[in-house]
Design a protein that fits this description.
homodimer; Aspartate Aminotransferase, domain 2; Translation Initiation Factor IF3; four-stranded mixed beta sheet; Aspartate Aminotransferase, domain 1; 458 residues; alpha/beta; globular; 3 domains; 16 strands
């Protein structure tokens, strides 16, 4: 099995495993207690905090351990917003943040706050000017990821931090995807991260709040972790998480070069091997191990199943994966194709031959899925007079497939009206038009769904 | 080292350690993913949930895993209160709940809710009639621990649940101290517990919400754990926690008898071995492994240090322990002595000889602390005319020691006025009067503190 989903969770690093085992014996007691076992636990926790702070580039007393990266984000966003309540009730996030950030923003909005989403370009990157333009006198907090979790695009954090600093607004960086590769540059104010992304165990996140940043923890009081992370400290897991962070950092420079070469192979060869593929994300400013592409006329869930049968674990931001029926908000914000989406995220140590095998297998798998769905061959084009494509009640990627099948029959200059009640069509029909060089005219309400209008240009 | 603080955290059970190791290999991936590693993780999580539900006595889909017992309580209380917001904004708790419950109540009160604290008797037990009397038409939730964490007193949960059920009010049971010993009896609605109390690893709590109970999770949305516990699931720790629960349950009946005999030895012999000791908590309806006593004229922190030097890890609800300067709210609610407080909580497997050694060592340790503090010999009594004891600026247990030293000089029927600015005196001077059969007349404001008035009866 080739596990290519490190951006979801990395397998436990051998060093983390060793550290976990060792600290199960010394780290189980309550570190707040005065007796020997408590003091041992406290020493382990203090040492882990020092080491984590060094890796992050902050003071030990600025860093607390949380039960997950998600909780670090929830706590960080809520605490920073509450700490600056007097300044105002305005929050800035990018449109491609992790769901933990966007859900925090929703809660804030429901409680009367105002949220500005900074858009991204087609590579998934924000512009510092986007944040600059969004800053207001009543902005309490800005949030930006260090790198995108779905497409790997690295964000201009240092520049955005500078813009925020100039306005006196704290910037919270969600460093979940990048902290294993190196510290986050720039003058940020808060930082959140998640250990299982860098080969640490589950159950450990970290939250850094720089000295001088106003912060008011929300929820019931608790004396542990400076009052910022309630509940008994998970010391063996914390020790393992930090040991793993140090271990991956020691190999980071070398491993980044190696993985970058492997993902570059995928970036360049997939579009040659598979017709009608769009590789998304920034080709240069990106995480070393992540590459994402979307395959037209393919349903993401089936594609994942077929790749799993071939021994590859990847993930998908497609609208067609089981956990959700709405397309990835990241791909949507980028304005790129969401159907048949595949994210390959290589864990450190991935062998070159595994990537080669993936490239060998992929074309056949995609072709097989397309054949099952009755997708049009990518070259065949004919002419006939069709105007309405009724795809009501059909799920992604069928509406686009039906559009493509009908298209050859449309005269140049003619219009196709695709009827669909599937939410993904709203994203994928315009994306298809862009890929095919056809004109997307817009949508209008229709009986039982929406009509999407496309003009044939050639 | 004899570790007698299992009520804080139990050492990792060997079965938990094995299960943790085994599931580190199969349980690290994202259980929401469709590929093989994700499915393996999902199967482990599902199996753990089934087993935990069986041990609790609930349906698997009623149980979620949280990052700690504290988080289970926070989530459970907030979700249940929000779920019944339309019914009203009244919460009932006992006066001796864990701080996670009381802090949840504080947050609720700060947001405009109303909280009734049900008092306890001198053993630390609530009366079902206390809950019955507190229930109102606008009561949204009642909370009661299954057993008290500081004195081991078992609460009448089934009776209180019945009273609440009759009023249509859900009861949340904090089962942290008892779940390892057996399921919680009665018709409760919600339940919270913590794995490291039964020999599971840190980082795992559980929250049960019975079908039909209105529940609205608070905070940012997250699809994991039925939307009730945000963040990546900690599957290896969950598997280990449940394996340990099953293991301790298998030995529970036998081990309960054994530990009950050991704690009974402490209950009966400590008052004979050490003068001026009050053993607190219910002598019969109590946890098998917990026994708590308070030593007059002793400072809890010094006592803990001395016991640690002798190789005993115990904890204290004294006002004099380092983490807090206010006396334990539990001892305060019970109206018992708080100074020189020691909680012995034996982990399963504690050897009888360790308890014997504790009983050998304790009298000398207490006498040594008392000598250092200049406490009066417990028998010596004389007669002289003294009325004011100035203990301003002196910390617990000095004010009581000064009172006791002055007392022999007070004529029968005469009054002592103890001046003190230490918060613990408010609790400990009345407790001293009760232990000594003297009359406590009350307190009044005085220059620089408070005057506590005691009449000598004999």
């Amino acid at each position: 099995m080739s596990y290519f989903d490190a951006a979801s969770a990395a397998p436990l690093h051998p060093v983390a495993r060793q550290a976990l085992l060792a600290s199960l014996d010394d780290g189980w007691a309550d570190p707040a207690r005065l007796y020997r076992e408590g003091r041992k636990a406290r020493m382990l926790l203090d040492a882990a905090r020092e080491a984590a702070a060094e890796a992050v580039g902050c003071r030990a007393d600025e860093l607390v351990f949380t039960p997950s990266g998600t909780r670090a984000v929830h706590t960080g966003v809520a605490g920073a917003l509450a700490g600056r309540r007097r300044v105002g009730r305005h929050l800035i996030v990018s449109a491609v943040e992790h769901s933990s950030v966007l859900h925090s923003a929703e809660v804030f909005e429901a409680a009367g706050g105002e949220v500005t989403q900074v858009p991204v370009d087609r590579t998934g990157a924000v512009a510092p000017s986007g944040y600059e333009g969004a800053l207001r006198a009543d902005t309490a907090l800005a949030v930006l990821q260090s790198a995108n979790h779905e497409v790997g695009t690295v964000q201009p954090v240092a520049e955005v931090a500078q813009v925020c600093r100039a306005a006196g607004v704290p910037l919270l960086v969600d460093a979940a995807q990048s902290l294993g590769w190196g510290p986050v540059e720039g003058d940020w104010s808060l930082l959140a991260a998640s250990a299982h992304k860098w080969g640490g165990p589950s159950g450990v996140g970290l939250l850094v709040v720089r000295k001088g940043v106003r912060f008011a923890p929300q929820g019931p009081a608790d004396e542990r972790e400076s009052g910022r992370a309630p509940g008994f400290e998970n010391i063996p897991a914390v020790v393992a998480a930090v040991a793993s962070l140090r271990a991956v950092r020691a190999e980071a420079a070398q491993e980044a070069l190696r993985l970058r070469e492997l993902t570059e192979r995928i970036r360049t060869r997939v579009p040659r091997l598979v017709p009608d593929v769009e590789v998304v994300g920034d080709p240069r400013r990106r995480l070393p191990g992540v590459v994402t592409f979307s395959c037209l006329y393919v349903d993401g869930e089936t594609l994942l199943h077929e790749l799993d049968r071939e021994g590859f674990a990847v993930s998908s931001g497609s609208s067609c994966t089981s956990s959700t029926l709405t397309p990835s908000h990241v791909l949507k914000a980028m304005g790129v194709l969401s159907e048949g989406n595949v994210r390959v995220s290589l864990p450190p140590g991935t062998a070159g031959e595994d990537v080669e095998r993936f490239l060998d297998v992929l074309p056949g798998v995609v072709a097989g899925v397309r054949e099952k769905l009755g997708a049009p061959a990518s070259a065949a084009v004919a002419e006939e007079d069709v105007t309405v494509v009724d795809a009501l009640g059909r799920r992604c990627p069928i509406p686009v497939i039906e559009l493509a099948k009908a298209f050859p029959g449309v005269p140049v200059g003619g219009t196709v009206r695709v009827l669909s009640d599937d939410e993904a069509a709203r994203l994928d029909i315009p994306a298809w038009c862009e890929m095919r060089g056809q004109e997307y005219l817009g949508e209008e309400p229709a009986d039982g769904g929406t009509a999407y209008l496309v003009r044939r240009l050639g």
